[in-house]
Amino acid sequence: MANSATVRERIRRLWRRDAEVIHPPVEVDAIPLSTRDDGYLLVAAQMLAYRRIDLAVAAATALGRELIVVGDGPERARLVTLAGPTVRFLGRVDRPTLVDLFARCHAYLVPGVEDFGIAPVEAMAAGKPVVAFRAGGATETVV
Questions:
Q1: Cβ density class 84-110: b for 16+ within 10 Å, e for less
Q2: Hey, is 122 helix, strand or coil?
Q3: 92: enclosing H helix or E strand
Q4: DSSP labels, 64-87
Q5: Distances in whole angstroms, Cα of residue 133 to Cα of each of 33, 88, 92, 98, 101
Q6: Which of 25, 50, 61, 65 has its CA 20 to 30 A from that of 85?
Q7: How far, CA to CA in Å, does 62 sit from each of 26, 29, 78, 85, 111?
Q8: Contact of 6 with 137, CB cutoff 8 Å
Q9: Strand, helix or coil at 99?
Q10: pTM given for the model
């Protein structure tokens, strides 16, 4: 099994085996549609190098755009040093807080290539645009 066509192709390429794609369940019905826009950009992810959160932090800092980063991980200290005054790090947040952040953001960012990407699907359920690379799971989920 694979959680996306991207992972399916990786399995095919590396192990020469076929895999059935079963997308992860995402509880989109639990996320209310929102027309609110408080203007900030949002990233919610574990802070790992391959997630390329540094690209979002650098872009927001250079453009003076407000960015809220949710999550934690080994890259956090490095990301904080890259960030300008418009970038806020909230660490881990509870589910109601995350859903509220989706509801109020201007757009959700996926700066790296994800295998599937649950958070972008949740952001779209809230009615928010998702800005992502045209690669990985985003090619299957981002409208």
A1: eebbebeeeeeeeebbbbbbbbeebbb
A2: helix
A3: none
A4: T--EEEE--STTHHHHHHH--TTE
A5: 24, 23, 24, 22, 22
A6: 50
A7: 33, 36, 17, 10, 15
A8: yes
A9: helix
A10: 0.91
Tell which phi-psi region holds residue 6, choosing left (phi > 0), alpha (psi between -120 and 50) or beta. alpha
Contacts of 71 (CB under 8 A, 6+ apart): 43, 44, 45, 46, 47, 91, 92
**CA gap 92, 109 in Å, rounded:** 17
Note the pLDDT tens digit of each residue in 46-104. Answer: 999 999 999 999 999 999 999 999 999 999 999 999 999 999 999 999 999 999 999 99
Instruction: Quickly tell me which residue has 């989920």 as its tokens.
Output: 141
